Amino acid sequence: MNTPLKDYESINATIPPELNKRLTALAKDTARPKSFYIRQAIERYLDDLENQYKPHTVENKS
């Protein structure tokens, strides 16, 4: 399912050359854009971080 680009926001990030090389190779090998894998990685990692840190947010420290 493709989501129109208007439903996305653009960000910039600097990554090490080796990570970019791996990402580029994966995108090429699978015929998917690098942005697809970047979104997936951020979603998965953010889910983990939220689960880890949410109990420790300022609002929850009473």
From TrEMBL:
Protein's recorded name: Ribbon-helix-helix domain
Origin: domain of life: Bacteria
InterPro entries assigned: Arc_rbn_hlx_hlx, Predicted_DNA_bind_prot_RHH, Ribbon_hlx_hlx
Source species taxonomy: Bacteria, Pseudomonadati, Pseudomonadota, Gammaproteobacteria, Moraxellales
One Pfam family hit: RHH_3
A single BP term in Gene Ontology: regulation of DNA-templated transcription
Occurrences of domain Predicted DNA-binding protein ribbon-helix-helix (ranges): 9-47
